[in-house]
Amino acid sequence: MRKGTTGPGDDRLRVVVVGGGTAGWMTAAALAALAGQACRVELVESAEIGIVGVGEATLPHMRFFIQRLGIDEAAFMRATDATFKLGIEFRDFGEIGERYIHPFGTYGRPLGGVAFHHYFLQRHPRPGGSAIGPYSAGVTAAEQRRFALPDNEADDPATSFGYAYQFDATRFAPFLRDWAEARGVTRTEGRIVDVERERTNGDVRAVLLAGGERIEGDLFVDCSGFRALLIGEQSWEDWSHWLPCDRAVAAPTASPAGTIEPFTRAAAMPAGWRWRIPLRHRVGNGYVYASRFLDDDMAREQFLAAIEGEPLAEPRLLRFRAGRRTRSWTGNVVAIGLASGFLEPLESTSIYLVQMAITALVEHFPGRPIDALDRDGFNRSVDAEYDRIRDFLILHYHATRRSDTPFWDHVRNMETPPELAQKLALWRETAQVAQYSHGLFLEPSWVAVLLGQGVIPHGWDQRAAIPDPAALDRALETLQGAIAERVAAMPDHRVWLEGHAA
Ligand code: FAD
Question: Which residue intervals of the chain bear CATH 3.50.50.60?
Fold first, then answer.
C-alpha cells in the first residue's frame, strides 16, 4: 500500500498537513480530536528547513483551544515555559512618554444598556493615557504584576478579566506533536520537492519528497509557512501600503530576577515597534520595522541599544509582508498559518488566526467531492477576521500624534481603509464603536486603544447622562476601590506560577 492511502474499510477523508510548525501541529491535533471520525491525518515536515520559531504571545482563545482538546493547562505551561498574559502595554504610541494597557475583558460594566466608557467620559473628557485602566481588573493586576484565576461567572468587574499565555514558540509544536501522535496522527520527515496535480482542475493529488516518497491525499492543508508550497503566489492581496512594517530583528535576553510581568510590551520605535515577552526562562525581544524607512544595520543597532541586557543569541532577521490570500481554500488546498497571510504581531493575532481557521475548517469539513459551499463559507470567515484585525492594527499607527520620524509622519497621514475611516468618524462624534457580533476586538478593545492613544470623542451617549456629577464620581471611585482591593489580594505573578504551574 502506498503511503497516505487508507486500508480496507477505512474510507475516511485522507488529510495531509504540509508543515510542522505551530500551524501544522495545531491543525493536526485539532483534526484528530474534533474530526477523527471523518478523517485520518498525516503530517509532513522537514527538520532541515525548520520552523519560524517566533510567535510567543497569544490571545485568550488559546485557553479554549487547549481546553477543547482536553490538554491540562499546567502541563502545557510547564512544557512551553509559559507565563500568563493579561494584555499588552503600549508605550509611546500616542505620543512619546504615554502608555496604556490594552487588557482582555471589559472596563466597568454597562448600565441601562450603555457601555461603561460613556459614563467615564463625562468625568474624563481629556486625553489621559491610561486613565480608564483602573476600571479594569486585568489592567490593575498587570500594573501590579499580580495574577490569580478570574471569576468570570460572577458578573463582577472586580473579579472578571481574560487571560492568555506567553510561551516558548519552539516548544509548543513538539508538545502538540506528542499529543497528536498519541491520537493517531502519523508523521513523515522529509523535504517536499514536487507537487503532483490533477490535469483537469489543478487539485493536488500527492506531494513528492526528496527521498522519493509520494504522499497522496484528498485534502491538503498548507501549513508550510511563508513558503506557501501548495497555495502558491497566485492570489495575494497586499496590504503593505497600510501596514508598512516588513522586517523584524529578534533575540532573547535573560530573565531579570524578581517578578515576571504578566503582560507583553509593545514599545514604539523610530520606524516601528519593539516587543518584549517575558517567559519563565528568558525574555523574547524583537523590533518590527519598515525597511522603507530604516535599513537593517540601523534597525539592529537601535534594537540592541533598546533591549534590556545582552542578547543570548545572535539577533535573527525575519522578512514578511502584510496581506493575505484572496482564497485561503482553493481547490483541495486549505492554507492555514503563515501560508495563508501575515499580519504583524502588534496584537498577537497570528496564532489566533490559525485557531479560527481550524475552527472554520472543522465547521465546513468537506465530504467527497468537496462542496464549493464549504470552501466559500470557510473563505468568508477567514477573510472577515483578517480584515477586522488589519483595521485594528492600522488604528495603532494612524491614531498617533507623533511626528518625530518620517515613519510616524507617514502612518499618521496615510489614507485608511474606508471601514476604518467610518469607524473613526463615528467614534469621534459619538463615542460609539461600530460593532460586529463575533470575532476579535470588540468594543472594549477599540476603547482601550482609542482612549489610550488620546482619541477623545466630542460626544457620548446621552442615555448615560447623570444629573449629579458628584454621585457619578462617587460611583466611579467605589468601582475603582473594589477592583484595587480584589487585586491587592492576588499573589505576585511569579509566586502564582510557582504554586500552580511549576
Ligand atoms: P512555520 O513555523 O514556518 O512552519 C512551516 C513548516 O513547514 C515547518 O515545519 C517547515 O519545516 C515546513 N516546510 C516548509 N517547506 C517545506 C518543504 N519543502 N518540505 C517539508 N516541509 C516544509 N504569532 C502570534 O500569535 N503571536 C506572536 O507574538 C507572534 N510573533 C511573531 C513575530 C514575528 C517576527 C513573526 C514573523 C511571526 C510572529 N507570529 C506571532 C506568527 C507566528 O510565528 C506564526 O503564525 C506561527 O508560528 C505559525 O507559523 P507556521 O506554522 O505557519 O509556519
Answer: 13-55+168-237+322-387
Show binding-site residues: 20-23, 85, 338, 347, 351
pLDDT by residue (tens digit) across 24-83?
999 999 999 998 889 999 999 999 999 998 879 999 999 999 999 999 999 999 999 999
Q: Are 42 and 186 in contact (CB under 8 A)?
A: yes
Burial (CB count <10 Å: 0-12, 13-18, 19+), residue 352: buried
- Alpha-carbon distance of 502 to 499, in angstroms, equals 6
User: What is 13-55+168-237+322-387's CATH number, 3.50.50.60, 3.30.70.141, 3.40.50.300, 3.40.250.10?
Assistant: 3.50.50.60
Pairing label, strands 341-342, 323-325: antiparallel
pLDDT confidence band for 155 (50 / 70 / 90): confident
Contact 28, 181 (CB under 8 A): no
The residues that are catalytic are 85
Cα angle at 478 between 476 and 484, to 5 degrees? 105
User: How is residue 391 written as a grid cell?
Assistant: 483595521
Residue 274: in which H helix or E strand, if any? strand 272-278
Tell me the CA–centroid distance for residue 76 and ligand 1, in Å: 19
